[in-house]
Design brief:
The protein has one domain. It has four helices and two strands; from the N terminus they run αβααβα. Strands 1-2 form a two-stranded antiparallel sheet. Helix 2 runs antiparallel to helix 3. It is globular and about 25 Å long. About 20% of the residues are buried.
């Protein structure tokens, strides 16, 4: 994910109410005008509920 930073991901998820499903996160990123790279990163996370932004970042970057 060299082209995606944790800051990019968090900006794309602005306004998300947690816990949130993968589907809700992908939709929020799309609605917030996220870059294709950020949307691709979110498309690649596990299909589950996320308790907060830290969990989303851990799924993408760890």
């Amino acid at each position: 994910m060299a082209n995606v930073s944790p800051i990019d991901v968090q900006k794309a998820l602005h306004g998300v109410d947690y816990p949130a499903s993968k589907e809700a996160l992908v939709k929020a990123a799309q609605d917030n005008g996220a870059s294709p790279e950020v949307r691709d990163a979110l498309d690649g996370i596990a299909d589950r509920e996320y308790e907060g932004p830290t969990g989303v970042s851990a799924e993408i970057f760890d």
